[in-house]
Amino acid sequence: MKEDTAKLLIEIIAKALADLKPHELSAKDILLDIPANSRFGDLTTNIALRLSSSLKQPRLKTAAVAAESIKNHLADSALKDYIEEVKAEGAGFVNFYFNNKYFYECLKEVIEKGEDSLKPACAEKKNILIEFVSANPTGPLSVAHARQAAVGDVLANILAFCGFKVKKEYYLNDVGNQINTLSNSVSLRIKELAGEKIDFPEEHYQGEYIYEIAKSALEHKIKPEASGDFAVKYILDIIKKELSDFGVRFDFWYSQKELEKSKKIEKALEFLKKKDFIYEKEGASWFKSTYFNDDKDRVVIKSDGSYTYLAPDIAYHQDKYKRGFDLLINIWGPDHHGYINRLKAAVMALGKEAETLSIIIVQLASIFKAGKPLQMSTRKGQYITLREVLDEVGVDAARFFFLMRRTSSHLNFDLEIAKKQTPENPVYYVQYAHARISSILRNSTIKVNRKGLDLTLLKEKEEIELIKKILQFTYILDIISKTLDPYILTVYLQELAESFHRFYDRHRVLGEDRALSEVRLALIQATKTVISQGLDLLGVSKPEKM
Quick check: helix, strand or coil at residue 13? Predict the structure, then answer.
């Protein structure tokens, strides 16, 4: 559904709302959605469900009153020739049914303009910084980090396509207890490899990769006391290679060690102190986060003079704003959920609106093989790594599968399905639609005149359904730009591929009627344009042959 159509429709609904009093809803409260079942129209709104209590009447009656008011305002709008029906249905939804004239005109735009017709127009050209993965450089990336990487990278692609200025950043936590433990782990393995008998602590890093780092350190004649910096660089090189092989590249790598050296932490805390948001208690420095709706105040400097995790994070986010970013998006794992309120409080204390920081919690992923969950990798005592998944199923399946559930939902990743070359594998199913269309277009002798087509020849049920599905693409991207959850794109592409396969299985594209063949070729070319753009945004390849 075209984005400007949705905006016009929201304006019409807002006018209708003004007729229905008393209530406190405004235009920003109006949400449009694509019905799960196409028999309930092409767009729907739940506004009547939200009005019924204030209007003190049943939901369906509220929906009926709202529908009549919308019809009245629709009669004077630019959409009057395109919306066939407005119905109150179900539990109180108002559903909109567009006519084929509308679909033909929109399809014509996709055929003539191609990719340019698919871009939603963002309301504001915001500068956005997405910080994601940011795993401590203490070992290879896990599947949890891999899912965060897929979400962050695809979200960045989509926001950039929508017109935002987007940068991607990896925050490198290269100081602290975990780095000290890494250094000690490598140092002990170096001594062990040199012939010393070592009692290796259980809380140290046990993986085989620690031996590999120690062996490399010995080859480079690194002394045990210098093993920490060497280990961090060694692991960071692994992480960068894994991410690159996964199709993820960052604009910035931001070091916490350099942040501390820059004195930005002291300056940020001094800034808050001058605003009276820092106080002293029991020998420690506390941030007044309860002033900004946190459940308790937070220590930023401990009684021993060391910083808590919050102190560098305050300085880091202040620096993000100073670098000119309007919207900060942080993608975190579920173990950071309790940290959201204090960081939001810090942002407000820095003088920024809470809405300028969005924090996305990405739930964990479980890897399945032969129907059974995998608990450990081949590395003793270690988690399943991104590298193992890439080696098993490849980049395309890995990126697609990591995005197949809402970020707020746990993900089950079945390696066996991801390797199948059958419609049971979702990424194969979508790629096969692209390859199938490519083959038809490649073998056709008919040259399509994009500006002289009679699209009204497309009358069959499957043709109209395919057109409708094509036109949902821009609306899907608009939803993602608002919810900041890219999973819906994988769902949409599967539905689009299904609509194409259904159309192709029931109707000949190339037949005796040349005019009909030409418009059907244009239809599948438009389908390919959307699938191609969708796969590009996912970072998944677009095979011409399969």
Answer: helix
